[in-house]
Prior knowledge:
This protein has one domain (6-23, 33-307): Ribokinase (UDP-N-acetylmuramoyl-L-alanine:D-glutamate ligase, 3-Layer(aba) Sandwich). It contains 11 helices and 14 strands. Strand 13 (233-236) and strand 14 (241-244) form a beta hairpin. It has an 8-stranded mixed β-sheet, with helices on both faces. It has a 4-stranded mixed β-sheet with strand order 3-2-7-8. A two-stranded parallel ribbon has the order 5-6. The protein is of the alpha/beta class. It has helices at 42-52, 67-78, 122-126, 129-133, 146-158, 170-173, 190-197, 206-218, 257-270, 275-290, 302-307; strands at 6-10, 14-21, 33-40, 57-60, 62-64, 87-89, 95-101, 107-113, 135-141, 163-166, 185-186, 223-227, 233-236, 241-244.
Amino acid sequence: MDKQGHVLVIGAASLDIKGRPSARPVRGSSTPGLIRTSLGGVARNIAENLARLDVETVLLTAVGDDDSGAHILGQAAGSGVDISEALVVEGQRTGAYMALLAEDGSLDVALDDMGVLAALKPEYFEARRYLFQNARMAAIDANPSPEALDTIVRLCQEYRVPLCADPTSTALAARLRPHLPYLYMTSPNVPEASVLCGDRFEPGDRNAAQAAASHLVAMGVGIAIITLAEFGVVYADAETKGHIPAIQTQIVDATGAGDAMTAAIIFGLLEGIPLDECVRLGVTAATLTLRSRETVRPDLSVDLLYNELVI
């Protein structure tokens, strides 16, 4: 971690459309509730969180040549993210994510439309080798194609760049399985962890979750973080393991909380902070995001993170 440079974040940037019912939904009929839009995409969320924590961040993503794409890139640049190498794909629509939240603000079901990311081909990354060569760390979501992920992992290995990966969803997590021995860190939730290591368990089974984190380390992952929703977070590396309980808080909107956690942990690792303290930073960032209507908390800062730090 002595290497200086930017964090290279690669993956999705999208428009989030989120609906939260005010009563139990009835299938086949409309339900009163709140509907709002915000900017999202796992990679974009991680990049903005890092920038708000004063980390130099470069985002590699693809958007369409539409108003949503222009808005996403403009907002990212305004928050401090370098979007100079992001692709604007002519004739394509920008990615979108539609979530139906439960009454308590947690995710019920969601759809994603990320076809524009097919433009992130292996040659796109090969042409930007200098961004890998000069990177201090890289972070990806699992949206790029398997061929693109192969190239990203190879370039990180070639230039000795620690690579962090968010599995993104159960549908996409399997794309990361061939690359587990090359990951510096991964941060799945319970269903995603089950896909990665084949160990099925429930969020409330902390011992099984801890065993799954250790299993991921045995499979080659440097640091395994598994989020257990209201049961907190378990973590493991080659030398240590542990559990940080969740902070009891009102959930306004759960979207983006895991991305905030990943970004705060990366921030801590870059600062040379011990792993258990990094995870505390992550839990704190996730909690702050749960209290916000936005996918990325707009007032997130290093000072706010430490002022709210879970003990």
